[in-house]
Amino acid sequence: MEDRNDSPPDREPAPPLMEKVLAALGELVIEYHRERGDDRIHVARENIAAAAQILRDSPGLSFDMLIDVTAIDYCGQPDGFRFQAPIMDQNRPIARRVSHSRHRVAMPERGPLPRFAVVYHLLSTALIHRLRIKCRVPEEDPAIPTVTGIWPGANWLERETYDLYGIRFSGHPDLRRIFLYDEFVGHPLRKDYGKQEEQPIQEYVGPGGHLPRRPYIGRTGQD
Question: Is the pTM value of this prediction over 0.90?
Fold first, then answer.
């Protein structure tokens, strides 16, 4: 990850909004990037609450709305990594004989960086500008401080990210699943979650209910 203080001398100067962000946050910003009009900064996960407070309260920034909180499973690869997954859903004899083979998980190689990135999308309703924050979170300790004390709307957004990615938000007032039931095993937006696995907690009576159910293989665990 490139540090902003080590940027090459011929790097394009930061746009006005980013200059204000860098001046306000100082060393809290690990790296910044702009692409096609989108401004993004990287912040260490332990500094997210402090950075959020400054971004909300600084008069020239006034990021009073948290539009979204989500995550990305980078498998430890850097931002912008592209993985050409093999195509398994082809009309080949093996795919016709073993229908679920088309759902096999194709994983990229693990990289040296923390596996996940938590992403915050901010908006200033007064100044009409946007900013994206990324914080890397390691697989062995997928936790980051909550920002519900700064933007109350983060409550459900953080619960969604916890439910689907298994990332815990320390200090959250009510961190529990929001889409899936409590008995659900695993987190379905992680890249290693087997999408063919089914986990019914009651008798299934929908389409194909008369067919044998595929058992849960148990490759993923629940935090």
Answer: no
How many C-beta neighbours within 10 Å does residue 22 have? Answer: 16
pLDDT tens for residues 115-148?
999 999 999 999 999 999 999 999 999 999 999 9
How many CA atoms lie within 13 Å of 205's alpha carbon, on the beta-carbon side?
A: 2
According to DSSP, the residues that pair with 144 across neighbouring strands are: 169
Measured between alpha carbons, how far is 223 from 215 in angstroms, rounded to an integer? 21
| Tokens, residue 188 | 């379905």
Report CA-CA distances (Å) from 104 to 107, 121, 183, 192.
10, 32, 23, 10
Q: Which CATH architecture has domain 4-170?
A: 2-Layer Sandwich (3.30)
Return the SS3 of 29: strand
Q: Which residues contact 206 (CB under 8 A, 6 or more apart)?
A: none
Helices (H), ranges, 37-181: 48-57, 93-97, 154-165
End-to-end CA distance of the chain: 28
CA distances from 148 to 57, 142, 174, 202 (A): 15, 18, 10, 35
82: exposed, middle or buried (Cβ count in 10 Å: 0-12, 13-18, 19+): exposed
